[in-house]
Amino acid sequence: MTEPASASQRPIKQLNKVIIRFAGDSGDGIQVLGTLFSTETAMAGTDLSTLPNYPAEIRAPAGTTYGVSSFQIQFGSTEIFTPGDHVDTLVAFNPAALKVHLPDLKPGGILIVNTGAFDRKNLEKAGYETNPLEDEELNLRDRYRLLTVDISGQVARALEDSELSFKEKERAKNFWALGLISWLYHRPIEPTIEWNNKKFGKRPAIAEANVTALKAGYYFGETIEALHETYDIAPASLPPGEYRAITGNVGLCYGLIAAAQKAGKHLHYCSYPITPASDILHELSRHKAFGVRTLQMEDEIAAIGAAIGASYAGQLAVTGTSGPGLALKSEALGLAVIAELPLVVIDVQRGGPSTGLPTKTEQADLLQAMFGRNGESPVVVLAASSPSDAYECAFEAVKIAIEHMVPVVLLSDAYIANGSEPWLIPDPEALPEIHAPHPPAVRDADAAFQPYARDDRTLARPWAVPGMPGYEHRIGGLEKQDGTGNVSYDPDNHEKMTRLRAEKVERVANDLPPTEIFGDPEGDELVIGWGSTFGAIRAAVAARRADGHKISHVHLRYINPLPNDLGDIIARFKKVLVPEINGGQLSMLLRSRYLVDIQGFDRVRGMPLLQEDIEHAIEQLLEGN
Amino acid sequence: MADAAVKLTKKDFESDQDVRWCPGCGDYAILSAVQKALPELGIPRERHVFIAGIGCSSRFPYYMNTYGFHTIHGRAPTIATGVKVANPELCVWVISGDGDGLSIGGNHMLHVLRRNVDLNIILFNNEIYGLTKGQYSPTSKVGTVTKSSPFGSQDYPVNPLAFALGAGATWYGRTIDRDIKHMTGMVQKAPQHHGTSLLEVLQNCIVFNDGVYGDLYDAKTKKDHILYLEDGQPMIFGTEDQYALVLENYGLKVVDRDQVDDSDIVVHDVRNRELAFLLSELERPVPVGVIYDRERAVYEDQVHELEQQVIEANAPGDLAAVLRSGTTWTVS
Asked: With an 8 Å Cβ cutoff, is A38 touching chain B?
């Protein structure tokens, strides 16, 4: 949009990076607002990272603190690793949002408050005895750059001529706020206008109302004096190419489709709806043109059962869930272990135990993935570290599962699943081929077929599938005799098979690339992370390194088996810190494996770790506390 | 599915594994009937897949020289669903029991029936848990004395036929392990139905529940206790065909045949769901044969048809294009 001349009359301040949080009722359209703002700034060329945060209830009672939904974004002209710790600007749509989120606003930060929602009822629901905007003790006006505006009233006036109902007009207030913030940070509103026209093509009155509200918010900025400057953020120097925004759940889907193509198989995604994994099912169910089959089964057990059946029948089988669902799938996962069938189980982790915090993030299923089955039941465990990494991890999980004839648990979490980041669109053709160990179509008539014969290098057994003549055989959950696959209760055979199944998983490490170290190959402190803490750890380590400390960062994608070179890397550092969003699960694994006195930094708040907290933990360990 | 070039014998379907059921177990007869029935179907051996859960019955796949998968307790229908969707060309059998199929796996039985996946489920009903050594099962009659119910069981049993009909079953048959000929015929009929076929076999557990179907075994009296159903035939039974079934008060009633007019005797109609429900309430005689048979859309057919429609309408997927769908921007 061409800016009105008056915009230039205000000073424009250049910033490297900015953190903004939008907060309101779960019905206020906060997530849409955040997503659209992300697109605007992405198209303006900045790097960014987002954190959507919403209640588990579909529509929590309006105006309550537990019904508050929020969306945080950090964007900037340098590389952005996290959605940020404390925010520069907070937009609060009602008293409850102000109450919940004010503590995270930096002193002197910009606070935009929708006074239209500050009536007695909403104040009471938020637990305010007096209006915080007029509270002298709270003193918002001096502590922050406060802009109070009746957004509801502004929208009503802007949409006076619209034929929409009062309620429909009211819904446009997120666009009004988006307009104002876009003006304040010089972000282009064209992508939002385009989105509206596309989304509401069949209801042009709504598209028109949203765009009118958007522009009204944009121009409102011109008229006010409370904000005496505007801000611009230069584009980041990202690698050249075509970009799009990607969330972790969608990244997983694309990785799975790519893997199915490279393996020459139909993807069978069998699942049962569960937050925060359901979007994988939604996305994949749209892609039938790729031969993707989505089976929404009757429960978590049926979902993994159908996946195991599809795998047995020779197709690519994937089931996806969250922690409670993984618990239900554990017996069947053990069946895939003993039947030695390829299977990918995605666990989009959330806060636990039990139902826990269904919409919040946590990394507390690591040991469940590792050990949560009866018997000695090893599986490969991988962890995605970001939305774009989810694409690669999904592909790699399939490649390992098929080529090694082994179940793979792929860990993601709510933060990766819903958070988005710019993604340099990859070329799916550049991915490696996936070779399924099917026996030859015509069997060698001289030798009896051995369903548990083993590949010398990987120990994978042949994947003979029903329909192939001459390979008829029986498999199952009872212990198998090596080679023949016949049921065997022989003690020595059980010992042998138990060790073979473990060895088969261990040999996956022989195919892994060297572990990447951020920083020097040796030093005072090594920070080891896994999963969605990548950004916060990388930013913290980079910051401490800039201060001259000899600190490095290793982020693990491969947790079982661990990389072959990890022990040597750890040995080259004086101290090791492992930050995780759990009670110290990776710390436990690494301590027992390497007998190293690893220091954990554990937080379980249902939220991503903060960069400043990790920096503090790094400092403390360096100082020997 | 039939392939005229294939001529197999019972021997072709026997695996090299020793059968390990108790001597005298009804399961031997069922195994033999299945091995006898399969050559007549004309389906190549590699296209048969036997999938079982857990329990005595579920060891079945190990004894069949076909593809086989002995899975976990109650979940065979889910695994079979995955197999059939992945490859509809296969003839997929599910072997289950009253505990496996109606207790721990009751939920999956419900859903596989409503989806109408083209599977052949053989439910061995012996009204007892055999492999765990004799506890009452969900089909045990109230008062059954077992190890876990020394004073007699208190749970009300499930009626497998009524359950299946309620779940939307499209084919239900029943047979008796002691009647090899009838059983073999029923095993052959089940795969002819396109959709889920549920064949209940009344099977004797010689160790823990011997004689539970005693009336049906006694050569002298069994005809007075069994109603052999034939589509389009009147419901007549008895050693001398002396009994008949008539409709009374919305139910089936046993009468002396000479007391009623022939035109009042109920004629079996496999397509009549209401009649099938009435038959589910019948305690004596026990109806056997094809009780219900009606075509309905088959799950995996729909999955594959929809996939073809989408591919034909949109051309096969182009992943590079999908990755570029939506909002993109270029950094130079």
From this structure: no
Q: Does A394 contact chain B (CB < 8 Å)?
A: no
Nearest-CA distance from B85 to chain A in Å? 7
Q: Please, is A425 exposed, middle or buried when counting C-beta atoms within 10 Å of its C-beta (0-12, 13-18, 19+)?
A: middle
Chain B neighbors of A191, CB-CB under 8 A:
327
**Orientation of helix B106-115 relative to helix A300-312, angle to 10°:** 60
Is residue A154 within 8 A of residue A216, CB to CB? The reply is: yes
A244/B329 CB distance under 8 A: yes
Rounded CA separation A42/A233 (Å): 11
> Which of A266, A312, A479 has the highest number of chain B CBs within 10 A, making it the mutation to test binding with B?
A312
- Looking at residue A483, what DSSP letter applies? B
Length of chain A measured in residues:
625
A309 vs B: CB within 8 A:
yes
Check: complex ipTM more than 0.95: yes
Q: In angstroms, what separates the C-alpha of B99 from chain A's closest C-alpha?
A: 17
d(CA A600, CA A263): 40
Nearest by CB to residue A314, choosing from B69, B84, B86, is B86
pLDDT tens for B206-246 read 999 999 999 999 989 899 999 999 999 999 999 999 999 99
Number of H helices, E strands in chain B: 10, 14
From the CA of B130, how many Å to the nearest CA of chain A?
Answer: 18
Backbone angles phi, psi at B309, to 5 degrees: -60, -45
Give the number of other Cβ atoms within 10 Å of residue B321's Cβ. 8
- Residue A148 neighbours by CB distance under 10 Å: 15
Tokens standing for residue A145: 């750059």
The H or E element spanning position B200 is strand B197-202
Cβ atoms of A357 and A367 within 8 Å: the answer is no
What's the whole-model pTM score?
Answer: 0.94
In a mutational test of the A interface, the residue from B303, B329, B332 whose CB has the highest number of chain A CBs within 10 Å is B329
Query: How far apart, in whole angstroms, are the C-alpha atoms of residue A384 and residue A346?
Result: 10
Alpha-carbon Rg for chain B, nearest whole angstrom, is 23
CA distance A576 to A595: 12
Q: Cβ B86–A475 below 8 Å, yes or no?
A: no
Where do the structural domains in chain B lie, given as residue ranges? 10-212
> What pairs with residue A20 in β-bridges?
A73, A89
Q: Cβ separation of B81 and A426 shorter than 8 Å? A: no
Give the pLDDT confidence of B90-129 residue by residue, as tens digits. Answer: 999 999 999 999 999 999 999 999 999 999 999 999 999 9
In tens, the pLDDT along A323-354 reads 999 999 999 999 999 999 999 999 999 999 99
DSSP B223: G
Q: Fill in the DSSP letter of residue A609.
A: P
A558 neighbors A593 (Cβ within 8 angstroms): no
> How far, in Å, CA of B214 to CA of B98, rounded?
18
Residue A362, CA distances (Å) to A320, A350, A549, B206 in order: 17, 5, 29, 53
Q: Does A75 touch chain B (CB under 8 A)?
A: no
Residue among A309, A469, A473 whose CB faces B86 most closely: A309
Residues B201, B183: contact at Cβ < 8 Å?
yes
> How many residues in total does chain B contain?
332
Contact check, Cβ <8 Å, B331/A241? yes
Cis check: omega of the bond before A437, within 30 degrees of 0: no
B10-212: CATH topology is Rossmann fold (3.40.50)
Residue that has been written with the tokens 């972790």 in this structure: A248
